[in-house]
Amino acid sequence: MKYEFNTERKYDIIAIGRACIDLNAVEYNRPMEDTMTFSKYVGGSPANIAIGGSKLGLKAGFIGKLSDDQHGRFIEQYMRGVGIDTSNMVIDKEGHKTGLAFTEIKSPEECSILMYREDVADLYLKPSEVHEDYIKQSKILLVSGTALSKSPSREAVLKAVNLAKKNDVKVIFELDYRPYTWESAEATSVYYSLVAKQADVVIGTRDEFDVMENRTEGQNENTVNNLFKHSPELIVIKHGVDGSYAYTKSGQMFRGQAYLTKVLKTFGAGDSYASAFLYALISGEEIETALKYGSASAAIVVSKHSSSEAMPTVEEIEQLISRESEKATI
Amino acid sequence: MKYEFNTERKYDIIAIGRACIDLNAVEYNRPMEDTMTFSKYVGGSPANIAIGGSKLGLKAGFIGKLSDDQHGRFIEQYMRGVGIDTSNMVIDKEGHKTGLAFTEIKSPEECSILMYREDVADLYLKPSEVHEDYIKQSKILLVSGTALSKSPSREAVLKAVNLAKKNDVKVIFELDYRPYTWESAEATSVYYSLVAKQADVVIGTRDEFDVMENRTEGQNENTVNNLFKHSPELIVIKHGVDGSYAYTKSGQMFRGQAYLTKVLKTFGAGDSYASAFLYALISGEEIETALKYGSASAAIVVSKHSSSEAMPTVEEIEQLISRESEKATI
Amino acid sequence: MKYEFNTERKYDIIAIGRACIDLNAVEYNRPMEDTMTFSKYVGGSPANIAIGGSKLGLKAGFIGKLSDDQHGRFIEQYMRGVGIDTSNMVIDKEGHKTGLAFTEIKSPEECSILMYREDVADLYLKPSEVHEDYIKQSKILLVSGTALSKSPSREAVLKAVNLAKKNDVKVIFELDYRPYTWESAEATSVYYSLVAKQADVVIGTRDEFDVMENRTEGQNENTVNNLFKHSPELIVIKHGVDGSYAYTKSGQMFRGQAYLTKVLKTFGAGDSYASAFLYALISGEEIETALKYGSASAAIVVSKHSSSEAMPTVEEIEQLISRESEKATI
Amino acid sequence: MKYEFNTERKYDIIAIGRACIDLNAVEYNRPMEDTMTFSKYVGGSPANIAIGGSKLGLKAGFIGKLSDDQHGRFIEQYMRGVGIDTSNMVIDKEGHKTGLAFTEIKSPEECSILMYREDVADLYLKPSEVHEDYIKQSKILLVSGTALSKSPSREAVLKAVNLAKKNDVKVIFELDYRPYTWESAEATSVYYSLVAKQADVVIGTRDEFDVMENRTEGQNENTVNNLFKHSPELIVIKHGVDGSYAYTKSGQMFRGQAYLTKVLKTFGAGDSYASAFLYALISGEEIETALKYGSASAAIVVSKHSSSEAMPTVEEIEQLISRESEKATI
Q: How confident is the model at residue A219, as a pLDDT?
């Protein structure tokens, strides 16, 4: 089964939300206290998805807010360099800084992130900085959940969703839950539900859907039944190594397996999944194929050091899929 | 034309939002600088509507947050005294104060309010303090727009609206726009639109609908056409002395005239209008009749000193309507 | 023993700090919940002292910040009306409100105050709004402790104390401790100690000196020994109905008795005490006489309804002193 | 001329204030946008001075607040590793992060710092976390000005200064002005003046003394005349490449020349100066010699990559001084 997009649009995808800096441990397999050098990369879920999509050949744009300093300028230059339209990335004039994520890789199983998210520039995107003229040029508006965690970014995203729906732009909601800056579990649930109900496609891990429902051990069946009463037409629920499930409003269910490769760290898996999955959908692939693209892209990124730089090409993804298919048929 | 409600419910109406203190000038027709004495009344749009409704015989409840002091206790006692269920009025434990409104009546045409709304208790109602078991016992959930102006009250109201819709409780949205605590005109528009689209009935002045649309000089026709694409079934737009208009999704339009009486001050007109209009609707009256009830109730309250204490009885309303009808037919 | 002031100055006293609104229960001897009417007066310790001093004939000025609304204008008009120079009372342009104190008089022994002190205008006085040219025209700078409770008012007062010392203006520190807006007991102690050490005269209750020392059950002897190592030359410690004690750096101690009169409420006792005590000192009276003035003025104010309006004249004070002296000699 | 310290104390120096992380550009002589790798060092003026002093053989302690994460633990481990007593470094339990300083070295003359100082842990040190029992064990309390920039750290430092003076611990005030988190130039001046007047030794650049005086182009003579009316006995004013001046209360003035070496970057010059200058004073050297120690230490640190790791040994300092003396005598 395929998923249809508006074809006559300048952009395949416009992402909205945070674009930050990852500072990845150069010396890893140790506690961060013993890491003395860090490498700088662009990070942040929607930025990574835009970068991943752009590398795969999608025409991507970005709506976000950047600090007025060296880190903000680096992000803009890097994203422009990989082909993303940055004309709607606004420079913050109130002194807010770029968000930072120091990554700690003790072992492939023990990864953690030390976040600097206090009053960061991306959360100060204002609704007046979101423009209908821009959004209506895209097939897809990609919304990441973290941009809902605080005002005024929250209202900027709610406005963007409104404009997307008004202009027949598909809203893809990547739950991307991060336990920072949210006021309460109840408030998180209120906004996640609000946007999920208005989205066309919702993508997240089972844990993230539980956050949306403010519960534990939720069941996919209940989740999709509730959401399909509203706008969503396609819902992807990821279960880690157990693979992912795609549900359609028409009642179909597809399962995608996880590809097991050498894992360096777990960061970036979700973003690379989303970018390749959406690339395949937009390219007119079947949902089953799109699930494979997502899994393959995630498998490649977790074997490498960064999240953004490591985003694979179509060729790399297809090679991995074909290699895995051969294994499966032996 | 009549409007149908779920009849098997314990409460006719549950209002959510602020319950505050009005301090009304005892010596009026002068600047507040020359007023040396103030009378204390319960105030706040949803509290006034609940009080007005209760006086008209509706079974009313209230969801809100009260300061843990003499003003908070006065409000609870007064509202309980007029027959409102106050079991879901929570006591604030973080030191927030009751909102205050000092009224200045220079002349019937020059009224102003000096507001104390900084960190007031009512805006600290949390989503966890809103309970499905309570809301589902009512025919109506009355939401006033000011409760959307700040977190966590904003999320508490969004949750309440969600629960109302889930349990077939009609959502009445009284726009009640107050230019305090809102972050920006754009943010105001985002939340007003969000709730208006989910409401069953929307009531406000033309100016308030303009705030919702973040524009000036909006036209009723456009406003109702946009909202009728979503949940609303009935929209009431008030034009001051020019009367009010009720629009139904089925395409009907009714006009209610304003009753011109002796005006002492303009405060309380909207709240008394809403309580009597809703009373008539719930009582099974035609929409045309409900419009008359609203106008009559407003006319009575603006001729008196307070907003809450002055809420009329059914008898007073019907006497005024009949008096005005006779005039009209002469 | 007398206390000497610089005689060649335009003002006897310039007070710095808060000028607010008292809303006093018209119906009293009951809980505030049952009070339905409130009378408006100017309030706030340094404002009361300036008003009291002005009524006694002192030439007074005031440095403070007023809300840009009816309450702010009322305060300025009232203070100007009683003869105070208000040229250095700045109008707040950032929307801060006037502080409010609703008084509850359950009985003469059970008085309480419901305070509105959240982000009030007086605490937003900035150091740049304190001018050396003004302060150096006065014999006395009266500082009240509450103005130290928050930035930027805190820094404005520290600057004013600096300028007073530089220009040989006596610094009178009225401890005036109010448990609002202070961050911690330790921080309170830090700033109270800092200013007390730089002051020439320190006045407060025993409890307030304990707050300054961040301890309980402090002894006057220790308190004065510590302070006399620094600038203070005269320290007055009040012990309620047990009277007050004045200590001089030269080692003298004077005791003033409390005059027992009909008490309506306890508010305003400290401010009226300070204004009359300072009036007597400035007028060249002996310290023993000044203690009597303070006690008499306090006794008069606690028998009346307000704190500012009730400030007595010299004649009233002297009549009470002479009446009490006769009683004592009978 | 020598400067005397209390000799019977466990610690030579206890520093109070910030201990942070420097992230120094590995690839330098370019804009930070082009720097892809950063090295991690302990930073922050008082931490650097304590580290520098400890490397020179002083017995040092530190009072500060650390984030409860990998960065906080790294700082504590590093400082303990160089011999500093860290028993009074408190772990923050409210989620505040370690301050960060990303350094950009475009050229030796064009260095800048990208600071992360928003709600950092060091500014949350509370007065209750400053203990008399600890401070009284030291010869010196070193206070750095930045710790005064925000509450509650501000009050913690004011308390520490109080306790130092009470216990005959010399207060050394390193102005260390950083234009972050301060509310206003006036407020900065208020607190800098307050502590400078209470200090025994004040050290800063001419620009920093101008900040203290809230003026531009101040003159050393006026500065020292004003401060010598209060506690200070020794004042060091640094004029960059023009050398530094030491003034004593007794009226002496000493000039120290700057040693011109190969400069990699300008960071760390002030901290290395202070640590070596204080080391010399405590070791009983003449003030002239102490000025040489300061200059030599600064010259060594600016030629190296870090501020803390690069702190020299006594031998390195003495070699440079003797090398420079020989040059001068040729």
A: 97
Asked whether residue D6 is domain-assigned, the answer is no
Of A128, A186, A191, the CB nearest to B186: A128
Give the pLDDT confidence of C43-72 residue by residue, as tens digits: 999 999 999 999 999 999 999 999 999 999
Chains touching B, CB cut-off 8 Å, 3+ pairs: A, C
- Cis (ω within 30 of 0) for the bond into B312? no
Q: Are strands B100-107 and B20-25 parallel, antiparallel or unpaired?
A: parallel
Give the gap in angstroms from C-alpha C242 to the nearest C-alpha of chain B. 32
- A40 contact residues in D (CB cutoff 8 A): 35-38
Partners of residue C118 in chain B, C-beta under 8 Å = 97, 118-119
List the single best residue of B123, B155, B157 to mutate versus A (max A Cβ within 10 A).
Answer: B155
Q: Chain A residue closest to D98 (CA)? A: A116
Q: Does B191 touch chain A (CB under 8 A)?
A: yes
Contact D192, D148 (CB under 8 A): yes
The pLDDT tens digits for A275-310 are: 999 999 999 999 999 999 999 999 999 999 888 889
Query: What is the structure's pLDDT at B330?
Result: 61
Chain A, window 52-111: residues with a beta carbon less than 8 angstroms from a chain D beta carbon: 69-71, 73-74, 77, 97, 100, 102, 104
Q: Is residue A272 included in any domain, yes or no? A: yes
Task: Report how many domains make up chain C.
Answer: 1
Going by the DSSP 8-state scheme, the letter that residue D230 receives in this structure is: S
Taking each helix axis from N to C terminus, what angle separates B314-329 and B287-301, rounded to the nearest 10 degrees?
A: 100
Is A127 within the bounds of a domain?
yes
**Dihedral class, residue B198 (left if φ above 0, else alpha if ψ from -120 to 50, else beta):** alpha
Work out the percent of chain A whose per-residue pLDDT is above 90. 86
| CB within 8 Å: C116 and B102 | no
C-beta atoms of A152 and B187 within 8 A: yes
CA nearest D191: which of C194, B199, A66? C194
Q: Per the domain annotation, does C5 fall within a domain?
A: no
Which residues lie across from D138 on neighbouring strands? D11
Is C58 in a helix, a strand, or coil?
coil
> Are D128 and C186 inside 8 Å of each other by CB?
yes
- Record: contact D38-A35, CB cut-off 8 A: no
pLDDT at site A168: 95
CB atoms D126 and C186 under 8 Å = yes
CA atoms within 13 A on the CB side of C254: 17
- 3-state SS, residue A247: strand
| Minimal CA separation from B74 to chain C, in Å | 5
Q: Is the dihedral of CA D57, D59, D64, D68 positive or negative?
A: positive
β-pair type (D60-66, A60-66)? unpaired
Task: Write out the residue range of the structural domain in which residue D235 sits.
Answer: 11-329
Q: What CATH code is carried by the domain that includes residue D135? A: 3.40.1190.20
Residues B157-191 have pLDDT tens digits of 999 999 999 999 999 999 999 998 899 999 999 99
**Distance, CA of D209 to chain centre:** 15
For residue D30, report the phi and psi dihedrals to the nearest 5 degrees: -165, 165
Which string of DSSP letters, residue by residue, matches B253-272? Answer: EEEEPPP----S-STTHHHH
DSSP D96: P
